[in-house]
UniProtKB/TrEMBL annotation:
The keyword Ubl conjugation appears for this protein: no
Signal peptide limits: 1-18
Cofactor note: Contains 1 topaquinone per subunit.
Species assigned in the record: Nicator chloris
Annotated keywords: Copper, Metal-binding, Oxidoreductase, Signal, TPQ
SUPFAM superfamilies: Amine oxidase catalytic domain (SSF49998), Amine oxidase N-terminal region (SSF54416)
Name this polypeptide is given: Amine oxidase
List of residues that carry 2',4',5'-topaquinone: Y452
Length: 703
């Protein structure tokens, strides 16, 4: 556990662990609001009309073209934002970040532009990465067009293998309708800078196709912008490598190939589906509704645009297309405690016997995990009482795309009191009982990055604690089972290996506790063995806390640059405008020489005493898949996060301002037959819970 050297503490959780009047007008939060559909459209129109850019539509056409890939908000510089928020300065100009693929030139590249001012853009300028690093064209994220061309190239290349595939799986690529094969692609796409060759896992296209590999993996080289020059470089089938499609096809034709024959998938109750099957032994009902969240007197939070208020909390939020949830201007009782709190990256490193498994090192910002925010289901993904919000993304599209119900906000009963005490008189009665119900406000979205679903939460507690948490669910990334693969996972179905992997999630925490000038210190708990001062000859062994201020950031790790950030539970650096994120959308396809390297953030040996500091937090867990991950990984036991906790910041627990406690005192101790029950809420919460008013007894008698 690391503690920040000011009244606000940040504690790592290695495993799962009434809105008041607004202090300022809601429009202040709008400087951090995501771009509207109209703003996204205006940016695209402006750039498409610039003749010097020569942009073509994203969809259709060749890969060797200039196209607009991504448009999202470019947050204002912090000093401009604080001048506006704190000192009544001018509103910062509203700008967009635009990512352009320049493929139709002698030296293709990816360029980022700042476009503004919004809502009527009239100019643009290039955005530079730290050190002026350029983004090579081979580092660009995949597009829908490239996937379409990849599929066409694969289908054409697999034609000689159609007899093998039909015989072994009953499915194929050629002229298929309902019995088709598909693929999942692996990244990184090569073994060094400039490469773009991808291992493809061939699967039967049925419900939950991620769990239906057929034993064939194909390495397809698609580096050249001309798809006619793409080629299969290597294949792996049922534990054996082949140098060409022809070699594998001939091996099958000569009868020298052991086939991996797969059983016919059932028409119903497929093991990879959600259809109910089996019965619980207890016989208790499951075909009826279970417990629900209710708001008997209405909502206790306020949502105005992108500004959220709850109890002492207020904050602005946005959903970045590139990397997901981002909080700004986080305050408690009007005082800022964090300028920014945001998701940076989600990484999954795999091991395996097959080439696709051993190559898999997913870095989900490279798949635009923020734009994978598909619709949340009322009553399942969020309670029925939740407020749902839409999101608009312009990612690999020729206009804004609306994602309905991409976020939700709801108050959650924690099922455990925030605090409570029963004060016994040790004679069968009590002096008093007091308790405060445990509740938190939850801001939630999800990222479905192909097979995995990440559930992203920020929880606000009434005692000034903020929790960041992520749950992992969805389908495991699985490969075809071979006996050699058992060293790298578990056999979770007849032909399926669940590959061992590690999830790592990286957050940015720009704490501003009592101002931007913060310091960092650690607390080490050690045991001392001392002479007992009140009993001669005796010893006392007791814990003591030792605080140490840290003047410089941690030393640079001996790691490859893109892997530096997740190796630290916590790294603290000086804040710089040219270090807005610890990763980028380009790291996935060029992890060897990425434009953003976290190592450069921490190797400059800057002082971090009384400076504007950023804490970079990594949480994660090891996942050894097992049969119970079928059909999907369950959320219990697969969640990680961290807490921001006040540490001598307040005079007392700030939740004493809540009017939701219950206090019970006997009026005739020790008999305790007459009680004073004090509540500041209505006697009964209403019909959505037990209709009887609150009652309490408190005695314990022999019977």
């Amino acid at each position: 556990m690391w503690l920040l050297g000011l009244p606000w503490a940040l504690a790592l959780l290695a495993t799962v662990a009434s809105s008041g009047p607004s202090a300022e007008p809601p429009e202040r939060a709008s400087i951090f609001a995501d771009l509207s559909a109209a703003e996204l459209r205006a940016v695209r129109t402006f750039l498409m009309e610039r003749p010097e850019l020569g942009l073509s539509p994203s969809q259709g056409g060749p890969l060797a073209k200039n196209s607009l890939f991504l448009v999202e908000l470019l947050p204002p510089k912090k000093r401009w934002a604080l001048r506006f928020l704190e000192h009544g300065g001018a509103r910062p100009p509203r700008e967009a970040r635009a990512v352009v693929f320049f493929g139709a030139q002698a030296e293709p590249n990816v360029t980022e532009l700042a476009v503004g001012p919004l809502p009527r853009p009239s100019s643009y300028r290039p955005l530079a990465f730290k050190g002026g690093r350029a983004v090579p064209f081979s580092a660009r994220p995949m597009t829908r067009l490239e996937y379409e061309l990849l599929h066409q190239a694969l289908v054409a290349a697999m034609a000689p293998l159609e007899p093998l595939l039909r015989e072994a799986t009953g499915f194929g690529f050629q002229n298929c309708s309902e019995r088709c094969l598909t693929f999942s692609d692996i990244a990184p796409r090569g073994l060094g800078p400039g490469e773009r060759r991808t291992w493809l896992v061939i699967q039967r296209f049925v419900e939950g196709f991620f769990l239906h590999p057929v034993g064939l993996e194909v390495l397809l080289d698609h580096w050249d912008p001309d798809p006619r020059l793409w080629a299969v470089r290597r294949l792996w089938y049922n534990g054996r490598y082949f140098g060409s499609v022809r070699e594998l096809a001939e091996s099958h034709a000569w009868g020298a190939l052991p086939l991996a024959r797969l059983p016919e998938p059932p028409a119903r109750r497929l093991f990879s589906s959600y259809e109910p099957r089996g019965r619980f032994a207890s016989g208790t009902p499951t075909a009826v509704h279970g417990a629900k969240v209710c708001e008997p007197q209405g909502r206790r939070y306020r949502l105005r645009g992108n500004r959220l208020e709850y109890g002492g909390w207020s904050l602005a939020f946005r959903l970045r297309s590139s990397a997901g949830l981002q909080l700004f201007d986080v305050r408690f009782d009007g005082e800022r405690v964090a300028y920014e709190l945001s998701v940076q990256e989600a990484i999954a490193f795999y091991g395996g016997h097959s080439p696709a498994a051993m190559q898999t090192k997913y870095m989900d910002a490279g798949w635009a995990m923020g734009a994978s925010s598909y619709e949340l289901a009322r009553g399942v993904d969020c309670p029925e009482t939740a407020t749902f919000l839409d999101a608009h993304h312009l990612l690999d599209a020729d206009g804004p795309v609306r994602f309905p119900r991409a976020l939700c906000v709801f108050e959650l009963p924690m099922g455990v009191p925030l605090r409570r005490h029963f004060d016994s008189d040790f004679q069968g009665g009590f002096h008093f009982y007091a308790g405060l119900e445990g509740r938190a406000l939850v801001l939630r979205t999800t990222s479905t990055v192909y097979n995995y679903d990440y559930i992203w939460d920020f929880l606000l507690y009434p005692n000034g604690v903020l929790e960041a948490k992520v749950h992992a669910t969805g389908y495991i990334h699985a490969t075809f089972y071979t006996p050699e693969g058992r060293r790298y996972g578990s056999r979770v179905h007849s032909h399926l290996l669940g590959n061992i992997h590690t999830h790592l999630v990286h957050y940015k925490v720009d704490l501003d506790v009592a101002g931007s000038g913060n310091s960092f210190e650690t607390m080490d708990i050690r045991f001392e063995n001392i002479s007992n001062p009140w009993s001669a000859g005796a010893r006392v062994v007791q814990p003591q806390g030792t605080r140490a201020g840290v003047g410089q950031g941690p030393p640079a790790p001996r790691l490859t640059p893109p892997l530096a950030c997740p190796r630290y539970h916590l790294a603290v650096t000086r804040r710089h405008e040219n270090e807005p994120s610890s990763s980028s959308i380009y790291t996935q396809n060029d992890p060897w020489d990425p434009p953003v390297t976290f190592e450069s953030f921490i190797r400059d040996n800057e002082t971090i005493e009384d400076q504007d500091l950023v804490a970079w937090v990594t949480v994660g867990f090891l996942h050894v898949p097992h049969a119970e991950d079928i059909p999907n990984t369950a959320t219990p036991g697969n969640a990680v996060g961290f807490f921001l906790r006040p540490f001598n910041f307040f005079d007392e627990d700030p939740s004493v301002a809540s009017r939701a406690p219950v206090i019970v005192r006997p009026l005739d101790p020790p008999t305790c037959s007459r009680l004073e029950i004090r509540r500041w809420t209505p006697p009964s919460p209403g019909p959505c819970v037990h209709p009887e008013p609150f009652s309490y007894n408190g005695t314990y008698r022999q019977v």
